[in-house]
Amino acid sequence: MQEPFDIQIGDIDYAIFPEGNDTYVIYKNGKEYAHIQKDTDLQWLRLDLETAIPVFETDEEINSIGREIMAYVPEDNEEEDEDLD
């Protein structure tokens, strides 16, 4: 499974925690903010925090976070791998 990572949109910091099955827990400025799920590459759904049922409303912030998740490329951990040798 993918490791957690950080993204920044404008001046807002988000921590992304992959949950599997294209579902992510999002922390905004250090506080739990949303659970989201990929619908399509351009459309992401916010999940209700209590029921985990998708909320079918267009949310541009959630879609922006989703686009950044899709664009994220993990950093190369060659230095860490070398330390293990």
List its traits.
alpha+beta, six-stranded antiparallel β-sheet, 2 helices
Task: Write up this protein.
With 85 residues, the protein is α+β, with helices and mostly antiparallel strands. It has one domain. Helix content is 22%, strand content 40%. The protein has two helices and six strands; from the N terminus they run ββββββαα. The chain has helices at 60-71, 78-84, and strands at residues 5-9, 12-20, 23-28, 31-38, 44-47, 54-55. The chain has a six-stranded antiparallel β-sheet. A hairpin with a 2-residue loop joins β3 and β4 (31-38). It is globular and about 35 Å long.
Q: How do the helices and strands line up, and which of them pair or pack?
A:
Elements: E1 5-9, E2 12-20, E3 23-28, E4 31-38, E5 44-47, E6 54-55, H1 60-71, H2 78-84
Antiparallel strand pairs: 1-2, 2-3, 3-4, 4-5, 5-6
Q: What is the total tally of β strands? A: 6
Domain count: 1
Give the DSSP E fraction (strand runs of 2 or more residues). Answer: 35-45%
Strand order, largest beta sheet: 1-2-3-4-5-6
Please identify the structural class as seen in this structure: alpha+beta
Which percent range fits the helix content?
10-25%
Calculate Rg over CA atoms. 14 Å
Describe the main β-sheet briefly: 6 strands, antiparallel
Low-confidence stretches: none
Q: How would you state the average pLDDT, rounded?
A: 89
Distance between the termini: 23 Å
| Number of DSSP helical runs | 2
Report the order of strands and helices. Answer: EEEEEEHH
Shape type: globular
